[in-house]
Write a structure and sequence with these properties.
This protein has 16 helices and 10 strands. The protein has 425 residues and is an alpha+beta fold.
């Protein structure tokens, strides 16, 4: 079956409350048919439905998850979208670029934020600077909501041109990426797993920005109780002062904290400007390594932890109660560690009641899962891609997908029996 590649891009309303926005128009591009633009009404979604169901058509997008989630939700096409993903027919230049950077010895796996944007990829591969069309308050990228319900033939030419060019750029960048892959070591393996990674990106983003999580009504009570607890602690501490500007009613008196620390710990850490470091992390470090024990500082750190729980978690979770849900965009490979990011949900405290505020729908339950040996498997895969001479880790994983190097080492350390399986151990 002959593959037909088509660039696709949609323009949407602005994002609000981290929810997937409704689409306004869709643009398509291919070398055979050029550019096409249509509204995302019933007729437009029917056209996309036909593309998703045609097994010969492969769709090329930049940040595919964003567009496809909107299509799946507002076009009611989730089964069709997921089927196209599962068949490897949805291609994302953002995911491709992340995998290319991982495989390129010169990049050493580093991911740049510019590589995630269409403007960055267009500049990298096509040598065109389109950044001016992506920045500013009056650009069309941010104004398509104004055109909803207006016939397409009445749209400003610049609005139509912008939408069409995005689909074309995605298409052209994709094929330039394929050319670059041919110049990399182990080129047959670079994008082997791209289809799975692209589908995983869609699933993570769909759960985060389309479905979200349900928040318990108890968040109101817990937030109020936590604020009262902090205010009581702050009132009893010499290191806080009343502040009308603060949402908690109190702010830190860092001058008082610094003066107190100078008295009890002359060798305490200072900042680059010569001032006493007053962050919770610096104080905890001094307590541990400089034996700086002080009851008032202990009480201050405890109060700061309560304040953090109130402002960092409870306030954010309460925002989801307008629709009884909390949504957060999942960002693929934008962190310094290369991991995906979803703030608010990344580091919910294990202690206390915070996690209990996220509840399943009635009649359902949560299923928790985790990667097995994620870092070690990544290390083995990268080592194999780069052709390192020692491939023992890769060989073991290839022979046994359930191989656990951690258990192997533990068995060797404690009883010398390296043949035990994880279950036997």
């Amino acid at each position: 079956m002959r593959r037909r590649y088509i660039g696709l891009d949609i323009e949407t309303h602005l994002i609000e409350k981290d929810e997937s926005p409704k689409g306004i128009c869709c643009s398509l591009y291919s070398e055979e048919n050029g550019a096409e633009l249509f509204l995302l009404d019933d007729h437009g979604y029917a056209k996309i439905h036909a593309l998703l169901e045609d097994p010969s058509i492969h769709l090329i997008l930049t940040n595919a998850a964003f567009d496809m989630i909107s299509i799946a939700v507002y076009g009611e096409l989730l089964p069709e979208v997921f089927w196209a993903y599962s068949m490897g027919r949805i291609h994302c230049t953002h995911i491709n670029q992340a995998m290319i950077n991982m495989a390129d010895p010169q990049m050493m796996g580093v991911q740049f934020k510019s590589d995630a944007s269409l403007a960055g990829q267009v500049f990298l591969y096509l040598g065109e600077d389109i950044s001016s069309s992506k920045k500013g308050e009056d650009i069309w990228r941010l104004r398509y909501g104004e055109l909803e319900s207006i016939p397409l033939d009445q749209w400003p030419e610049e609005a139509k041109r912008y939408a069409k060019k995005d689909a074309e750029y995605s298409y052209r960048v994709f094929f330039k990426q394929l050319e670059r892959v041919t110049k990399l070591p182990n080129r047959p393996l670079v994008l082997t797993n791209a289809a799975f990674q692209t589908m995983a990106d869609f699933c993570l983003n769909f759960c985060s920005s389309a479905i979200g999580v349900k928040i318990s009504e108890r968040v109101h009570t817990l937030k109020k109780e936590t604020l009262q607890k902090f205010q009581t602690m702050a009132e009893a501490s010499p290191f806080y002062k009343v502040s009308k500007k603060s949402k908690t009613g109190y702010s830190c008196n860092k001058t008082q904290i610094g003066s107190h620390i100078k008295k009890i710990c002359p060798n305490y850490k200072k900042t680059k400007t010569g001032k006493v470091a007053t962050s919770s992390e610096a104080i905890e470090f001094a307590q541990k390594h400089l034996n700086m024990r002080d009851k008032s500082l202990d009480a201050y750190l405890e109060a700061e932890e309560v304040r953090s729980t109130y402002s960092k978690y409870l306030t954010k979770l309460e925002e989801g109660l307008s629709s009884h849900r909390r949504r957060k965009k999942y960002s693929y490979s934008l962190g310094k560690t290369g991991r995906g990011l979803s703030t608010v949900f990344n580091n919910l405290p294990r202690e206390g009641e915070i996690r209990s505020l996220i509840v399943p729908e009635e009649g359902r339950t949560f299923l928790f899962g985790d990667y097995s040996n994620a870092e070690m498997r990544s290390l083995a895969h990268i080592s194999h891609l780069r052709g390192y001479p020692e491939q023992k880790l890769w060989e073991r994983y290839s022979k046994d997908p359930h191989f656990d190097p951690h258990t192997l080492v533990a068995c060797g350390l404690y009883n010398g029996n390296k043949s035990l399986t994880p279950i036997e151990y």
